[in-house]
Specification:
The protein is of the alpha/beta class. It has 2 domains: 3-349, TIM Barrel (Alpha-Beta Barrel); 388-482, Glucose-6-phosphate isomerase like protein, domain 1 (Rossmann fold). Helices cover 33% and strands 14% of the residues. The strands form 4 sheets. The protein has an 8-stranded parallel β-barrel with strand order 1-2-3-4-5-6-10-12, surrounded by 5 helices. A 4-stranded parallel β-sheet has the order 14-13-15-16, with helices on one face. Helix 15 links the parallel strand 15 and strand 16 (459-464). Helix 5 (117-136) crosses helix 6 (156-170), helix 6 (156-170) packs parallel to helix 9 and helix 10 runs parallel beside helix 12. The longest helix has 20 residues, at 117-136.
């Protein structure tokens, strides 16, 4: 399937409905000249509005509504039956699950943590047959949308890597088949105040004051964290992080998470470009007279700059965003209409710019490539406890001795035991590693250079066998007694 074969309005403007059970007012969507309408559906309460939206060339996205309690339970029958009902009307875009990396989306007491692999695996296990059912109807299943955050244990990039790691081992063929047959990535790009318009002639680091913004003039930046202001203040920052200020990634921008998903998807599943739609998000929406400035590197947001910026954001999606980014649905209908003001006025006043979508294969042959993230060799950073623990024995030390003499240590902590230092290379960047290195005095420095220097993310735990090798056994047995695998 190619990007240009997905059926939608080609209009990046979108709005999120008030919520489940509440039927939107079609006039609110047509008057803003929208191209997307995000609906949350408990059953089939949106049949009439979907019919009217499609007739107005506004593309509905229907999310199956599950309560936090239902997230922990098998999918109810309507998760499938309501899809068929909407599909019969011509609805093609569907979502299941919403921001599962937030505790509020789960029953109380749930361990919402990317390291809780049974929880994440369960989501994938349930999403897969649902997505295949959606695709069997000729419709488009959206991958599980996440809240965009850099805060462990909820960090977006860690959740995506964990789920993709599981998919690549358990569902590789089925997932790539979905990618080739209409799947897309749902994101929640809350832009906050990560945008600006250059002062005419002022250069890429200049930012116009709010009363000087004009969506019909050039100079807008929505490419955070890759925009000039961000790069000048924290050089090298990416959605992965890449700098001391962003150790857990920085996905909070219009296209940031979509870029991450596409790069990871290219590296793991061989895709070229997978469609991305923001199914909620947008620029900060202040109260009247309020200014919101979450990042002081960028101008604060007022109702005026929200309005001008929202129009410019949608136009940027059409003219400057990557070909795979199809637009975004701002959060949400009642908040924008209840506060009134500039965004409603500006969207009504300015005609939308439609997006020209090139004929790029989602997966398969072609010339379009997304520059993949090339991680450093060896394991990634440790967040909390390391994923793996490896005991590396210096040359001349017999593994048989280790198991005979240090069986209690191995039994308590179950490390990998090897004499090969290059075994570290087999631990990918998505995982972390601690090495307990048992060396003789004449090999300690050599092993430190061979392991610690080229692999800075590794926890390097050195035990030097001074004199009798039994001294090492004493150290290891003492660790067992203290339940402490590392020195």
């Amino acid at each position: 399937m190619r990007l240009d074969e997905y059926v939608w309005s080609r209009n990046p403007r979108g709005l999120h409905s008030i919520g489940a059970f509440i039927r939107p007012d079609i006039q609110r969507y047509t008057s803003l000249q929208l191209g997307w309408a995000k609906l949350v559906s408990e059953n089939v309460e949106h049949i009439e509005i979907c019919t009217n939206l499609l007739a107005a060339n506004i593309t509905p996205i229907v999310r199956v509504y599950l309560t936090p309690g239902q997230n922990a339970e098998p999918l109810p029958p309507q998760a499938f039956s309501q899809i068929a009902t909407y599909a019969a009307l011509g609805v093609k875009w569907f979502e299941l699950y919403n921001e599962p990396n937030l505790p509020v989306e789960w029953p109380g007491g749930t361990n919402v943590d990317y390291r809780n692999t049974p929880l994440l695996n369960m989501l994938v296990d349930r999403w897969m047959p649902w997505a295949e059912y959606v695709a069997s109807l000729g419709c488009y299943p959206g991958f599980i949308s996440l809240a965009e955050t850099d805060s462990p244990p909820l960090a977006t990039v860690y959740w995506i890597d964990t789920m993709f790691g599981y998919i690549s081992s358990a569902y590789y063929q089925r997932f790539t088949s979905l990618l080739a047959n209409g799947m897309w990535y749902a994101t929640h790009p809350y832009v906050l105040n990560h945008f600006y318009q250059e002062v005419p002639g002022g250069g890429p680091l200049s930012a116009r004051p709010n009363d000087g913004l004009n969506p019909q003039e050039p100079g807008w930046h929505f490419e955070y964290p890759y925009d000039p202001i961000c790069q000048s203040t924290d050089p090298g920052r990416t959605v992965y992080g890449g700098t001391p200020q962003t150790p857990n990634g920085d996905p909070v921008g219009l296209i940031a998470t979509g870029q991450f998903l596409n790069e990871r998807s290219s590296a793991i599943f061989g895709t070229q470009a997978v469609p991305v739609v923001g199914t909620e998000g947008g620029i900060d929406l202040p109260q009247a007279g309020e200014t919101i400035q979450r990042d002081n590197r960028y101008p604060g947001v007022t109702l005026l700059s929200n309005g001008e910026g929202t129009v410019a954001m949608f136009d940027w999606c059409a003219t400057s965003a990557p070909p795979w980014f199809f637009g975004s649905c701002i959060w949400k209908e009642d908040e924008y209409y209840n506060r009134g003001g500039y965004a409603i006025d500006r969207l009504q006043r300015y005609a939308p710019i439609l997006k020209t979508v090139p004929p790029i294969d989602v997966i398969g042959g072609g010339t379009y490539t997304i520059q993949p993230f090339i991680p450093p060799a060896g394991p990634g950073p440790i967040h909390g406890e390391p994923t793996y623990h490896m005991v590396i024995l210096a040359p001349g030390l017999d593994p048989g001795w280790f198991f005979d003499t240090a069986f209690a240590y191995w039994s308590a902590f179950r490390p990998i035991v090897t004499t090969l230092t290059d075994f570290v290379n087999y631990i990918p960047y998505a995982y972390s590693l601690a090495t307990t290195v048992i060396a003789t005095p004449d090999t300690a420095d050599l092993l430190r250079q061979a392991i610690s220097a080229p692999y800075p993310n590794i926890l390097f735990d050195l035990i030097v066998a001074e004199g009798s090798i039994d001294s090492v056994a004493q150290v290891l047995n003492d660790r067992v007694a203290r339940s402490a695998p590392f020195g």
